[in-house]
Write a structure and sequence with these properties.
30 strands; single chain; 30% helix; alpha/beta; 711 residues
Amino acid sequence: MQTTATPTHCPYCALQCGMNLTPVPREHLPGRPGAGGGTVEVSERADFPVNRGALCGKGRTAPDVLSSRVRLTSPLVRSGGTLTPATWDEALDRIAEELRRTRTEHGPDAVGVFGGGGLTNEKAYALGKFARVVLGTSQIDYNGRFCMSSAAAAGTKAFGLDRGLPFPLEDIPRTGCVILVGSNLAETMPPALRFFRELRENGGTLVVVDPRRTKTAEQADLHLAPRPGTDLALALGLLHLVVAEGRVDEAYVQDRTAGWEEARAAAMAHWPEYVERITGVSVPELREAVRLFCEPEAAMVLTARGPEQQAKGTDTVGAWINLCLATGRAGRPLSGYGCLTGQGNGQGGREHGQKSDQLPGYRRLDDPQARRHVAEVWGVDPDSLPGPGRSAYELLDALGTDIRSLLLMGSNPVVSAPRAAHVEERLRSLGFLAVCDVVLSETAALADVVLPVTQWAEETGTTTSLEGRVLLRRQAVSAPDGIRGDLEVLHELAGRLGVQKGFPTDAEEVFEELRRASAGGPADYSGITYRRLVEENGVFWPCPGRAPADEGAADAVHPGTPRLFLDRFATPDGRARFVPVSHRASAEEPDEEYPVLLTTGRVVAQYQSGAQTRRVAELNAAAPGPFVELHPRLAARLGAAEGDPVAVVSRRGRAVAPARITTSIRPDTVFMPFHWPGEGRANTLTNPALDPTSRMPEFKACAVRLEAVRT
């Protein structure tokens, strides 16, 4: 067995922290059997600049999920209502037969494909190609739609290009002020918190916008606690004050932007007292936020799921971008707007074809030139490629009616989707469901066929972090017998469905084709190779195949682009666009029957739907189950004490969890984490109302009532 350390990256969030993995024989770690007859030991990798060796509990314990005791090790096929072990040929033959039958009887769009933001770039690329070339279906999307699609839409409107952060994390400590909107990164990506601590140590300031006083908000110089769903009004109120106090960077607006007058007029309708009534944030706090943001030479706004997971998320992010543009805080050193991507490969996952309206290289599926380019790489007729399909929730909502069969890879919508009980019903109504996963998730348990696939430490592939840094995860151990890679699954299914070429099983070979498909697109990876990723510790896209003309020789290597927009924005005229927006109510406001607002989020010891982290003993001990966080005044009205079971009821369902009483939340708001199934499943309650542009569901605000549960 190899015993040298393999440098790689964490399988969880979009920080993609660096780590070293060393195989350890089983006898050296009794009680922790793992992959390939042993397991791996995580050690510090200080050379990676994002985490400098630091890891959260999830990263440290990631090898525990490699264990054969917690994962799938054989294909499962439903027979007589029960999932039973089967051979790989039996399982693959069944999937191919059912997909072929569905296409023949109901047409290609009766087959759906649903992907995940944890898939590598190679898998995401191959899955999108498989859907469009092999199945011929337009019905493909992925759970990254639930992550940062609103920020992507707003960034594209304003800048002509979306990349999570247009600058490296290392710039944060050197700026003057950061407004962090709707992110509890102390729990969702703990190693990143040091950048904000260093910011304050260097004399900068941190403003945190969150309805809860989270561990992140406790680090702030100023904490603004708006009512959930009012971030749009808050941003407009700050822009109003920027104008009223004469803090607009007029020269910058004149030289580098367009559309200011319309955006200015919209903001001026949101005077401070009006915004205070909407948000609950006082006028003095609004003025202090503007002062902290505008006085330094450089400043940033960073958003996360709080403002984005709303039915007006695109406009909300657009309002924060307008604040950056009006003050000259975009496309300048140590300044700008950025989005803190959540999922491990949420950025790359949509750049290369899982998203229903995009082709590899972040190309638009309805762009004839883009279709021609990608079709040529794929060796197919451009007219054979289907058009844009349904977004993620709309696709899930159509299961069992328009969509009869579904291939699902790396997602657990039974827990993670909004209106989750309804989504579970739709999954149960399918004629056929096939799931590829590492564990028997709540969604996989409903499937007709389940395929056990390799995971992060057992395979090689690339991911793209929240910085836009393309990284190489490297195989450190072999998978247990009976497990295959997702690329092999797609290769085998394609062959059974009549496509013998174009779906290689080697990740580097897939990446080489991805490079060609992305060439010339907004997310151009054509200058990136596996060798460069190893030698340079990652490469920032865009990275064309040739260096700019001013770099010297015509064959010079492009260095990649750590910082975007310093010379021009990615719009036809190089100017950023203001987008005029106005406040509007959430899709569902409290009323007499449902008088309280629910917002949802994560806790430090669990990740996403918890399908993997709930199988790690250390993490489960730290966060064993759901809870309802509520203010003492709300608890007193309910008659609930700490730990008492509380029912949270919305128009879509009911969830029950123990009360956690704290003054760190607004009295009109309750919070639930969404990692668990069962009676505490928070997403049973959430509202699937969709943003008209991004199609993001409104996870972050819905009306509920509370009921004491007598036991």
